[in-house]
Amino acid sequence: MYAAPVTSFLEPAALHQTRFRTPGVSPDARGVVLGQRGLCLFPSLDRAVAFFRAYAEDGSLDELLPGLTIERVVSALKTRDIAVSVAAESSYRMDRVAQVARLAGGEVFTGTQRHFVRYRDAKSPLGYDLLEIVEARADVVVYDRSYQQAYAIERAIAFSELILKLEPHVARDRPEAPASVWVSAETGIGHALVGYLFRWRVDAHVALAEWPAASAFDDGPRRLHLFELRGAPPRVLRLLRSLPGVHVFAPATARVGVELGYEHPVALESCQGVFSTTGLTLFTGRSGVTVVDPRPAFVPVRTLVRADVRVDEASAGRASGLGAPPVLDLSFRLAPSQLPWRQVVATVVPIHEREWLARMLYVLPPTTLDALRMALTAEAIYLLDPHGIEGVPLGRFYSRIAERVYVPSGMALVPAVSSGVLEELVAGAGGGHVFFDDEGAPKVVPHDAFGPISRRILKAVAGRPVHADAPDRHDVPLPQLSYGPETRFPLWGVPGKGPTEPG
Hints:
Blueprint: E1 10-12, E2 26-27, E3 33-34, E4 37-42, H1 45-58, E5 69-75, E6 80-87, H2 91-103, E7 107-111, E8 115-118, E9 128-130, E10 140-143, E11 148-157, H3 159-165, E12 169-170, E13 180-186, H4 187-199, E14 203-211, E15 222-230, H5 234-242, E16 246-251, E17 256-259, E18 262-263, E19 280-284, E20 288-292, E21 299-300, E22 309-312, E23 318-319, E24 322-323, E25 327-330, E26 333-336, E27 344-350, H6 354-363, H7 366-371, E28 373-376, E29 380-384, E30 396-402, E31 405-408, E32 411-414, H8 419-427, E33 433-435, E34 443-445, E35 451-452, H9 453-456
Parallel strand pairs: 8-10, 17-19, 31-33
Antiparallel strand pairs: 1-9, 2-3, 4-6, 4-7, 5-6, 5-11, 7-8, 10-11, 12-18, 13-15, 13-16, 14-15, 14-21, 16-17, 19-20, 22-25, 23-24, 26-32, 27-29, 27-30, 28-29, 28-35, 30-31, 33-34
């Protein structure tokens, strides 16, 4: 059987070779044939994405970005390939590019302008040179060992455009709660989240992003609330992710985030030069990408919480015909809190449950009774235990939020002020214990009203003398024993112990 010979268009480069037929190539310090650029040809766009993804795992795409171009090229037979061109600064870089590109299913070439020859491989460790240059009207001509092909550039693809259009996929591993997250919310729910995050005492900042209307048919510009949360509990993140119109993003870099539970196909931290330095880029799992540029101003959510403000006009005196500034009087309110119960040191038992409390005190251990302090009023019984009141399962539990200031457990005082401010307010109430409840004004119980259980509810024990005599003494006489002559059985003959010694 006759086999047709395979035509070769290249010849291996020789050691110390200085003259080449390929335009724009020369040996580097290692003797490797190298042009100014490296060219990788991929049969499809997904193979090019696989190359970027694999290269970013152990390397940085930022080092390729200054000279990176991505183009879709078409041959005379109307076959289309993806050409990725990078600056060939050294053979060390090209070695890594070639290894990753060939793993992704591509072919690697080197050259300077239009003509590119195959980059070095195991058959020719120093590279290749042309046997003959092909004159063709083409933008790119590539030469391999067994073929040569001319291509025309159909269109250029920006690397930033490619990254932004890639859709994140579901993460393989269960993501851990990051220390800091971004949250986007539609304006309808964003206003409610401001109050919710404040009540949950989450360290959160909020901003309002705005884009112009996409067309004249839109009602107005698009608006979106952006939150930055630090140290949010995992249960809060799970709740936010379950809300419609809300997305939670884990930061990939300082300016890029990917929706929690998803991964971008390319390691975004390796190509930070693609993204804006003045804005935020947020990749959503199923809804595309949101670019906020420039970055809006973030403010703490506590500054936006609504409070009841009353203007006291009576205290606004007038001086020299000019009105003094009005006084703002803020009233405290109780709001539900999702934080764990802490400092639960008091309980308030309604007066109609005093019989239950009396029965409970009979079974409490002495250590609990010693620590309890009690105050009795006409409406309720107040119990305090600085070590924790959990030993008394009655009444409504209260948590200490400042010295001698208590709120019902599971509730929070809004607006949130420092404990020092609350302590100053308590000092104005005569140094008593302040209990906030749902009935409006808090109740102040004087400090002297609290006393130990033994002094408050236990009755005094009075002794009553009774007649008592000592019992009559009746001593039974003991037998008298004396020593006699020695016998073989010493104990024989003891009174009450049997017969005398046998003869």
